[in-house]
Amino acid sequence: MANLKKQTFWGGAATLAAAVAVVKIIGALYKIPLGNMLTGEGMDILARRIIFTMCC
Question: Which of 19, 30, 37, 47 has CA atoms 20 to 30 A from the CA of 2?
């Protein structure tokens, strides 16, 4: 138990920032091909769903 490294605020913040960056990249890799596969109507539905999720 004495060998555990003490986690600092800035270390935790840096870890969270790196995790957010990775998730954003994965999301972009998912959405770009999806946008190419969907038609205009499909993209409209997807955009409305994303906006609804962010607002509500």
Answer: 19
Length of the chain: 56
CA distances 5 to 10, 21, 31, 51, Å, are: 14, 24, 38, 41
List, for residues 3-38, the tens digit of each pLDDT value: 556 678 888 999 999 999 999 898 888 877 877 787
Q: Which residues contact 39 (CB under 8 A, 6 or more apart)?
A: none
Alpha helices in the chain (DSSP H): 9-37, 40-55
Distance (Å, whole) CA 17 – CA 51: 23
What tokens does 24 get? 């954003």
Asked if 31 and 23 touch (Cβ cutoff 8 Å), the reply is: no
